């Protein structure tokens, strides 16, 4: 939680602590960034208007430094519509106006932590996909790209200048290493990896 108003920090930290959340408070964006550990799950509750680095600039700094953009909830002393619109466009979970409604804050924190959990789970999943792809031989990667492009085994064999049974062998090993059982799964993973695939024929 980042706010240059000590009374706000104390009040909101007390509220969230009572609700069972572990809270760390910072009186400036600089202090927050210095202590920030992106590997620790959670969200950031940030005041918009602060001396030096403001809330939106802090949000931008977090997006630029993390593999996962930490979910941010903004609080503001005034209902600044353009600022709130900009914050939401940049991915803020919510924009709350002081005095903060307790229920609104709790709901926003729950939503932000849920978003953070999903992002971390997706990153772990993607890391596993990358490991699987890295385990493929160069020939298995070639076969993968042709399979995803919709080529039949005999067509792939002709393209690569190998026997069809060799393609079947590479295809089976590739599917096993990638941890998929269907072409649809393989296509989804290939799209997620952003592979440059040959056009189907």
Describe the structure.
The protein is mainly α and 201 residues long. The chain folds into two domains: 6-120, Rossmann fold (3-Layer(aba) Sandwich), CATH 3.40.50.2300; 135-193, Arc Repressor Mutant, subunit A (Orthogonal Bundle). 59% of the residues lie in helices and 6% in strands. It contains nine helices and three strands, in the order ααβαβαβααααα. The protein has helices at residues 6-18, 29-35, 55-65, 81-89, 102-134, 138-148, 153-160, 164-178, 183-193; strands at 44-47, 72-76, 94-97. It has a three-stranded parallel sheet with strand order 1-2-3, with helices on both faces. Strand 1 (44-47), helix 3 and strand 2 (72-76) form a beta-alpha-beta unit. The protein is elongated and about 75 Å long. It starts with 5 loop residues before the first helix and ends in an 8-residue tail after the last helix. 22% of the residues are buried.
Secondary structure topology:
Layout: H1 6-18, H2 29-35, E1 44-47, H3 55-65, E2 72-76, H4 81-89, E3 94-97, H5 102-134, H6 138-148, H7 153-160, H8 164-178, H9 183-193
Parallel strand pairs: 1-2, 2-3
Helix pairs in contact: 6-8, 6-9, 7-8
Short description:
The protein is mainly α and 201 residues long. The chain contains nine helices and three strands; from the N terminus they run ααβαβαβααααα. The protein has helices at residues 6-18, 29-35, 55-65, 81-89, 102-134, 138-148, 153-160, 164-178, 183-193; strands at residues 44-47, 72-76, 94-97.
